[in-house]
TrEMBL record:
<dbReference type="InterPro" id="IPR003347">
    <property type="entry name" value="JmjC_dom"/>
</dbReference>
<feature type="domain" description="JmjC">
    <location>
        <begin position="206"/>
        <end position="388"/>
    </location>
</feature>
<protein>
    <recommendedName>
        <fullName>JmjC domain-containing protein</fullName>
    </recommendedName>
</protein>
<dbReference type="Pfam" id="PF13621">
    <property type="entry name" value="Cupin_8"/>
</dbReference>
<dbReference type="InterPro" id="IPR041667">
    <property type="entry name" value="Cupin_8"/>
</dbReference>
Length: 388
């Protein structure tokens, strides 16, 4: 995640936000004259852009933006509320079934703890290694009275006319990968079709990745319960001495990750502690410690002195991709595979230290800053990362 927030950038962001608000108000006034649905949709879209593109506007301004969205929706877009079935899709898989915990690229399982550690045990010695707390978030409203696996519920928290940023393409390291803004309802139709259908292979994969959806839809934020561990002011781990918490007021960055079966985040590192909550579907996780970096084949940092066309692909966290591995930990097959040859140091030094697991709905994963991590969804999956 870019933490760049110099005064010039902040001023630019504020100006962009104000511009979006003005444009949206112009559209809203137009609605009073014309009752035109298109103007109302445009008004809401400008406000969503203010939240998405400018980053989190200051607290008061975010409330103001959300308030205008609600008013425009109530006044001009009531007829757009679709009558979609509220039936709750079955929870799949059945709990405890079909755990896909084996990957040829990871010799170990991520430890699963029978009992959550006390806060003091977490701070004093648990926070420097990954672990899973099975079922720890089973009480979240998101898995109960406000089920995030229900497209009906997810539409209702947004109301009509909302847009969201999505990644298009299977892998952010490839040239055909791009990002776009699209209607939330259209995205949900693709990710959670009314009848569970196979993802058509000629359709590009859409992934709402690393996006703070909770700024746009605060009702979803209320469906998550932040674990107390997140507020425990951890010091830098020995193998990542430059750790600093996120610079926002809460020192916590929450992101949503929602996509169909088969979305992949290639192995990469982030500079934060992470509690990663699995709310819908199963997700396979691959992890390796920070000191394996020399054998992870990260993409080289961009060389600005070379006059070469550069790969326009960006990455969830770092436009240069120097925090991303070239090794495909999910596609690399067993040791005899030809995949082994180009990445021999990976097979020699990383595989025996790497860990994997498949998270189920309700599980909470923890890993420290600098750890290599890769994720693959096994079916439609909705997760929340909490960086702190
Ligand atoms: O869920 C994913 O696809 C990636 C999550 C991730 O990279 C993170 O939480 O930092
Ligand atoms: Fe990450």
């Amino acid at each position: 995640m870019s933490q760049s927030s110099g005064p010039a950038l902040t001023r630019l962001r504020n100006a962009y936000t104000d511009g979006c608000i003005l444009q949206s108000l112009a559209d809203a006034f137009d609605c009073y004259d014309t009752r035109a649905e298109a103007s109302a949709l445009s008004s809401v879209a400008w406000l969503d852009k203010a939240i998405i593109i400018a980053g989190a506007p200051g607290e008061g301004k975010l409330d103001f933006i959300l308030d205008i969205i609600e008013r425009v929706q109530a006044e001009f877009l009531r007829q757009c509320i679709e009558d979609i079935p509220s039936d709750l899709p079955p929870e799949f898989p059945q709990r405890g079934m079909n755990l896909l915990s084996h990957l040829p690229t990871a010799a170990n399982a991520i430890p699963r703890l029978d009992r959550p550690p006390s806060l003091s045990a977490f701070v004093s010695h648990m926070a420097h290694q990954p672990f899973i707390l099975p079922g720890f978030i089973r009480d979240w409203p998101a898995l109960n009275e406000h089920p995030w696996r229900s497209p009906h519920y997810l539409r209702s928290v947004a109301g009509p006319g909302r847009i969201v940023p999505v990644e298009v393409g299977d892998d952010y390291r490839t040239d055909d990968w791009t990002q776009m803004l699209m209607p939330w309802t259209e995205f949900l139709d693709s990710v959670m079709p009314p009848v569970q259908t196979m993802h058509a292979s000629d359709q590009p994969t859409l992934y709402l990745a690393q996006h703070n959806l909770f700024h746009q839809f605060p009702a979803l934020r209320a469906d998550a319960i932040i674990p107390d561990y997140v507020y425990s002011s951890l010091s830098p781990p020995p193998d990542f001495p430059h750790y600093e918490p996120p610079t926002n007021a809460d020192q916590l960055v929450m992101n949503a990750w929602l996509g169909p079966a088969g979305t992949i985040s290639p192995a990469h590192t982030d500079p934060f502690y992470n509690f990663y909550a699995q709310v819908v579907g199963r997700k396979t996780i691959w992890l390796a410690p920070p000191d394996t970096s020399p054998s992870m084949y990260p993409y080289p940092p961009p060389d600005v002195t070379l006059d070469q066309p550069h790969n326009p692909a960006s990455n969830h966290t770092n436009p240069s991709m120097s925090n991303t591995s070239q090794v495909d930990v999910f596609r690399a097959s067993d040791q005899s595979s030809t995949n082994r040859t180009p990445f021999s140091a990976f097979w020699e030094n990383v595989v025996n230290r790497a860990m994997c697991t498949t998270l189920e709905p309700g599980d909470l994963l923890f890993f420290p800053p600098g750890w290599w991590h890769a994720m693959r969804s096994e079916e439609t999956s909705f997760s929340v990362s909490m960086w702190f």
